[in-house]
Design goal:
Elements lengths: L4 E12 L2 E12 L3 E5 L6 H8 L6 E6 L5 E4 L13 H11 L4 H10 L16 H13 L5 E5 L7 H18 L2 E5 L3 H7 L2 E6 L1 E6 L1 H4 L2 H8 L10
Parallel strand pairs: 3-7, 3-8, 5-6, 6-7
Antiparallel strand pairs: 1-2, 1-4, 8-9
Helix pairs in contact: 2-4, 3-4
Length: 232
């Protein structure tokens, strides 16, 4: 693998029983890349992330750079938000596992724009934006090299969507992070990503936003016209 790459994926395919979910996906991510993974519902975007993280079986190869640390934010938490679990409980659980001091928790909270007064609040009283920033803080613990997101603004209102993407872009610039993000927000992806991966069970395109977000490419990807307000 090229030493500049943080991950190299070659001919990755995923099948569930007799159903092919992904077929022949090949791409590399260099350190500092911001990759937007786009495609219609059911195209295999989330499955791609899970395969890359080793959470589902696949054929082909996924090779991560030696010693790479990954921060992952799923689309949905596998816990009941209406339990009496506070944001502090949630974040401190990871801190204890990694033996990270409490001071690091306050640092990552500051980085994502949250005050420590939110730590005692139950998850179910946080706004969508606050919860998402809390999840990003959780992912930042341990100083990852790459942040992997599945629909990071799915529960966030329209003004909050752009603020989340701006936050990720700032974190990328400040800490040299690589970002890999599944998104339906084509306007935001076109502004912040430097690479686009188009999926519809197979790889429709991979490259710069200028190439990958052309109308003819999006028509092929989605099967109908898609409009993007702003390209880089």
């Amino acid at each position: 693998m090229n030493e500049q790459n943080i991950v190299a994926i070659n001919n990755l395919s995923v099948r569930f029983g007799d159903r092919t979910v992904l077929s022949g996906i090949t791409f590399n991510l260099a350190r500092g890349d911001f990759l937007g993974v786009i495609g219609p519902n059911g195209s295999g975007k989330t499955v791609l992330l899970k395969a890359a993280l080793g959470e589902v079986s696949y054929t082909g190869s996924v090779v991560w750079a030696s010693g790479v640390k990954i921060g992952y934010v799923p689309q949905h938490l596998d816990l009941d938000r209406y339990l009496t679990l506070t944001l502090g409980d949630f974040i401190q659980l990871k801190a204890r596992i990694l033996n990270i001091p409490f001071s690091e928790i306050t640092k990552v909270m500051t980085l994502v724009g949250l005050g420590k007064e939110l730590l005692p609040r139950p998850l179910n009283v946080l706004s969508g934006g606050q919860l998402q920033r809390g999840l990003i803080a959780f992912a930042l613990l341990g100083k990852p090299d790459i942040l992997v997101f599945d629909e990071p603004t799915a529960s966030v209102d329209n003004p909050g969507e752009e603020r989340i993407y701006e936050l990720l872009h700032r974190l990328q610039d400040d800490f040299g992070l690589t970002i890999m993000i599944v998104s339906h927000e084509l306007d935001l992806v076109s502004r912040f990503a430097n690479k686009i991966l188009c999926l519809n069970r197979e790889m429709i395109c991979y490259g710069s936003p200028e190439h990958s977000l052309k109308p003819e490419v999006l028509d092929k990807l989605y099967g109908h016209s898609m409009h993007i307000h702003e390209l880089k």
